[in-house]
């Protein structure tokens, strides 16, 4: 963790200066990466229809420990149970959501949905899961029963696409980032899921460009939005007001995450860089070189160590798909 704010600058400098590790093994591009809650295992989902599990230690040791097979088309997203370091969930363009026992390396439940799935999120206590498909149909799952409990097409309600989504720290409200529809602005749709169904609560105007990604501070203080106009906005998660605008990037924001302590926001874009910002002061803390990819599409900060993993659209002519990691002690 970066517990002391005086350590923030030092840690970020180390992350930006260290040599990255490339984890090879996928036959096609990597779409998604996620750490388990113990910080011991990194999952990568690929267009080659497989999921790989990697062990990455703080000194830079990296090795593949398992390959999970079962999906028949591209694996678009993976997500770990927030309390159970062995339970993994994945969604795919094959229209299924799968529950995995990562320790045993086997699928324990497959649920068929109505469309090709492209997004996924776990509630903070692990009791609910939401998936999103290409037609903006969101499906709510009871994670304990491994069953569908509600489904809704949000495009019919808001007239534009739903992009990324995630729960606030309480686990009561699901926040959806969207395209532009209402008076030429993108919105944040806030949905109450406490009764195991989608209850729309509030529409919050966001920016004049499509919001592609959303991330929540693990302490519950803030959430961040990344949009197509290269702007990152930081919001107070209780007051629902913008507290800062971050403008380091020159390109559309395509991925973001907070550090394990919530003190740093990392965000990536089409310009092959990952920017690090001090959440409290909004000061730039450095840039991680991501020129190994054409566009950063996913960033994941280890929950226990200062290790950052990312993946993206591979450069033209690159064979296979890679996960890239940097760490303060690499």
UniProtKB/TrEMBL annotation:
Residues 246-302 form the Anaphase-promoting complex subunit 4-like WD40 domain. PROSITE patterns: WD_REPEATS_1, WD_REPEATS_2, WD_REPEATS_REGION. Pfam families: ANAPC4_WD40 (PF12894), WD40 (PF00400). The keyword Amino-acid biosynthesis does not apply. One of its GO terms (cellular component) is THO complex part of transcription export complex. InterPro entries: Apc4-like_WD40_dom, Tex1/THOC3, WD40/YVTN_repeat-like_dom_sf, WD40_PAC1, WD40_repeat_CS, WD40_repeat_dom_sf, WD40_rpt. Gene3D superfamilies: YVTN repeat-like/Quinoprotein amine dehydrogenase. WD repeats lie at residues 23-57, 68-110, 204-245. GO terms for biological process: mRNA export from nucleus. The keyword Metal-binding does not apply. Belongs to the THOC3 family. PANTHER family: THO COMPLEX SUBUNIT 3, THO COMPLEX SUBUNIT 3 THO3. This is Anaphase-promoting complex subunit 4-like WD40 domain-containing protein. It comes from Mucochytrium quahogii.
């Amino acid at each position: 963790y970066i517990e002391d704010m005086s350590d923030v600058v030092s840690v970020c400098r180390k992350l930006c200066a260290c040599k990255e590790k490339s984890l090879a093994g996928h036959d096609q591009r990597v779409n998604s990466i996620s750490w388990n809650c113990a910080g011991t295992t990194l999952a990568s989902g690929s267009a080659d229809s497989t999921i790989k599990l990697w062990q990455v230690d703080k000194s830079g040791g990296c090795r593949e420990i398992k390959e999970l097979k079962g999906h028949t088309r591209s694996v678009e997203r993976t997500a770990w149970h927030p309390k159970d370091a062995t339970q993994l969930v994945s969604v795919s363009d094959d229209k299924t959501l799968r529950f995995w026992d990562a320790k045993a390396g086997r699928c324990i439940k497959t649920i068929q949905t109505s469309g090709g799935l492209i997004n996924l999120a776990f509630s903070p206590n692990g009791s609910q899961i939401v998936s999103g498909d290409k037609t903006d149909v969101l499906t709510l799952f009871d994670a304990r029963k491994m069953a569908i409990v509600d489904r809704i097409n949000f495009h019919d309600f808001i007239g534009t696409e739903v992009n990324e989504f995630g729960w606030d720290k309480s686990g009561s409200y699901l926040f959806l980032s969207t395209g532009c529809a209402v008076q030429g602005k993108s919105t944040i749709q806030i949905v109450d899921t406490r009764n195991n169904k989608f209850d729309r609560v509030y529409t919050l105007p966001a920016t004049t460009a499509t919001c592609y990604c959303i991330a929540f501070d693990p302490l519950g203080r803030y959430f961040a939005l990344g949009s197509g106009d290269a702007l990152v906005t930081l919001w107070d998660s209780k007051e629902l007001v913008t507290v800062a605008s971050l403008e380091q990037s020159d390109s559309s924001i395509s991925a973001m995450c907070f550090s394990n302590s919530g003190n740093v926001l990392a965000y990536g874009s089409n310009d092959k860089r990952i920017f690090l910002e001090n959440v409290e002061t909004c000061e730039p803390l450095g840039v991680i070189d991501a020129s190994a990819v054409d566009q950063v599409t996913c960033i994941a900060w280890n929950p226990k160590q200062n290790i950052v993993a990312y993946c993206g659209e591979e450069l033209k002519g690159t064979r296979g798909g890679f996960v890239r990691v940097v760490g303060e002690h690499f």
